[in-house]
Specification:
It contains eight helices and 14 strands. By secondary structure, it is of the alpha+beta class. The protein has three domains: 97 residues, Vaccinia Virus protein VP39 (Rossmann fold), CATH 3.40.50; 101 residues, Trna Endonuclease, Chain: A, domain 1, CATH 3.40.1350; 97 residues, Immunoglobulin-like (Sandwich). The strands form four sheets. The protein has a five-stranded mixed β-sheet with strand order 3-4-5-6-7, with helices on both faces. Strands 11-10-13-14 form a four-stranded antiparallel β-sheet, with no helix packed on it. Strand 3 and strand 4 form a beta hairpin. Helix 1 packs across helix 2. The chain is flat, with a radius of gyration of 28 Å. It binds S-adenosylmethionine (SAM). S-adenosylmethionine binds next to loops.
């Protein structure tokens, strides 16, 4: 028998590390799947050197970026879920010194389009050419498929199917199954923005009739989809002048790949400004017609006429898409 004395230690393949403590007021962020920093610390320590770049493509509450930052590593984090991005951003901003630290956040999803869930549904129905229907179960119909728009700005989970499963018209489904036992009783299309892998299978399993379930994931299947977005303008009245401070033609900006905050001069994006000083609520009869010549820009500042009542401003961008807004003169 040979005895080898060794001082060398290896890490066991079961790591005994304590879980996040609910009573801890500092580390828990409230993100449901957050991991303790000690786990990530060990992984980063074992696999990188200071200054290396650490990437976590499922960052959740940002444990990996936070630990990487504390350990002097550079990092990239990504997550499909807006809450994850917000939680991580808050967490990192708390950690970072107030000086410029180089934290940059890129939005590669359509989070800003889908801020309002009701609008999100309408935008998706329009962009995917789905016929809206008035029903408590489905949101629309397309080519014989009944369409359900799942919650967006986060991955769709099995729990999100509950409403659909509860509200299905089981009597009709049963009848269809009796009439045509070998056919699907319903063709369902689930539209989502990221989803749990077994979403379709779960729906089929939970409903005791033969369903055909298809998933359209707008991040994976329709990544090039373009959403129609409203333009925005900042207009104020001061010293008897109407001043257009800023104008964001969102569709045009999207086409030019310019972020809203990076617009240097809104006038470069504008074809014309028309103003009706006494708008009758129906027909635009502009008295101010600002259509600059080829190398000029619109003025952006207009003297309000004495007789002005309801003012209607129409700003048209280089795509010939217009924004019209009305307000009362002071
Ligand atoms: C288990 S959690 C990560 C938790 C993280 N380690 C922490 O400590 O907070 C997994 C994350 O992956 C994200 N996710 C799931 N599918 C994704 C995808 N296709 N692309 C990017 N993120 C995704 C989820 O939103 C979730 O935040």
């Amino acid at each position: 028998m040979i005895y080898i004395e060794s001082t060398h230690k290896t890490v066991d393949d079961v790591w005994r590390l304590s879980m996040l403590q609910p009573a801890d007021k500092i580390e828990p962020t409230g993100y449901p799947t957050q991991k303790p920093e000690t786990v990530i610390e060990r992984i980063i320590e074992a696999s990188t050197n200071p200054g290396d770049l650490v990437f976590d493509c499922f960052m959740g509450s940002g444990t990996t970026p936070a630990v990487a930052l504390k350990m002097g590593r550079k990092f990239i984090g990504a997550d499909i879920n807006l809450t994850a991005v917000q939680t991580t951003t808050k967490r990192l901003l708390n950690l970072l010194p107030t000086s410029d630290c180089g934290l940059e956040i890129y939005n590669v999803n359509n989070y800003d389009i889908f801020k309002n869930p009701t609008q999100a549904k309408d935008l998706l129905l329009e962009a995917l050419e789905i016929q809206p229907i008035n029903s408590s179960v489905y949101d629309g119909e397309k080519d014989g498929q009944m369409v359900k728009i799942m919650p967006v700005n986060r991955i769709a989970t099995k729990a999100d199917l509950n409403n659909l499963i509860t509200n299905l018209d089981y009597k009709t489904l049963e009848q269809r199954q009796k009439d045509n036992p070998n056919q699907y009783v319903e063709d369902i299309l689930l539209v989502c923005m990221g989803h749990e892998p077994d979403l379709a299978a779960t729906l089929k399993k939970e409903v005791p009739y033969k369903l055909n379930v298809e998933i359209v994931d707008i991040l994976r299947d329709r990544a090039n989809i373009e959403f129609k977005r409203d333009a925005e303008a900042l207009i104020r009245i001061e010293d008897n002048e109407l001043i257009i401070e800023n104008f964001y033609p969102m569709n045009l900006l999207q086409k030019l790949s310019i972020m809203k905050d990076n617009v240097t001069d809104w006038k470069e994006l504008v074809e014309s400004v028309m103003i009706n000083w006494n708008y009758d609520g129906a027909v635009l009869e502009p008295k101010e017609i600002d259509v600059p010549s080829k190398n000029d820009f619109v003025k952006g500042v207009y003297v309000i006429t004495k007789e002005a009542g309801t003012i209607r401003v129409k700003i048209t961008d280089l795509l010939s898409e217009s924004l019209e807004v009305s307000f009362e003169s002071e």
